[in-house]
């Protein structure tokens, strides 16, 4: 197996990054581009031995990194961000080749956000404080102490952005990291290791172990030296991770996707509402926050559907490297089969495909809108994670909110209305970690992000990230009893 492969003209190391050096495994797994099915390379396939070595490296590096001053940690994280900026084009083309998302999005939004993740948490670290307060004359002082080695398990739909959303605050907090990227899109995590090393991040502070979660996941999540685990992915996998982490009572942060609603009221700007709805096809529907359940007030449903179909029919699906493409391929044939299975079962149960409803060329799933769906049906209740939307109608505000909340999930919700009072009433009653009103996907790292119900445990962003990656300590000091040793 070659130690390096070339992807879109960019050399990428195929080995793990453990303790500041490259480590190969005896076995490999094949990384395939979703764009055309071409083999990108053979990637080191981690075993429990490599997982244990990465945790050991993180444990060994932790005392020195935790003792590093906030200012120095922030300086190094800014240097990592600088490295991302310098290699932005390389990161963009490699990630597009590896996971099939639009190259224009990687260039203009995703990779700049990767650099911003590091800069934001570096800067937030320098302002992190809680005002001292008194209790019967005693001084209370709150501090954030680094917790220890952290295992971060990240998904394939936005590999580097979502990885650095975890890596950056964990490192800023003074923790060391073992990053396990998704096996369907591992390449930019390897490039991140190179960038971090070049920026001066000490050996062992960031480790990257590639492979299958079924083979190395338990070795990472049940390890007694791991102090934090953060995972983004599916509910079934989260249950396995939680059971594994329970052996050591390791704190968990879980972001588990959703089945988010888009509520469109009759008083909404209809063109805006249609734009918001069509936007849910972004990244071929492979977005945890996507509002896949369109809930439209009955009096405007016919006109909304007509405009939606007209706009969605103008979307261009194809090669994500083409600037004219709006929707790229599905990440993997198995995911395509999963999406198609959902749609086939739904139509067999009576749903009607207004648009789409089929795969194309074995790699692309046509943007799909299903109507005539029952509230308790699988297609309404379960996350598809593909370009598949359902449309249901409601008559009253009360009914709309009830339908919006009637799933096991609670990650996000979107509301389209021209009535500010209604917006306030509805958002107060929606079960969701994030609610957008007359907009979508406006994100700020200062804000808490996470979900309710089966959409997750905990929140990420701003001080909430540091609260998770640190052990919070309150020091209470008596006002008297000091001896003068001068």
From TrEMBL:
Key word Glycoprotein present: no
Chain ranges of the Aldehyde dehydrogenase domain: 26-474
Matching PROSITE patterns: ALDEHYDE_DEHYDR_CYS (PS00070), ALDEHYDE_DEHYDR_GLU (PS00687)
Residues in the signal sequence: none
Keywords: Oxidoreductase
Transmembrane residue ranges: none
Active site, renumbered: 255
Coiled coil regions, renumbered to chain: none
GO MF annotations in UniProt: oxidoreductase activity, acting on the aldehyde or oxo group of donors, NAD or NADP as acceptor
Protein name: Betaine-aldehyde dehydrogenase
Species assigned in the record: Streptomyces resistomycificus
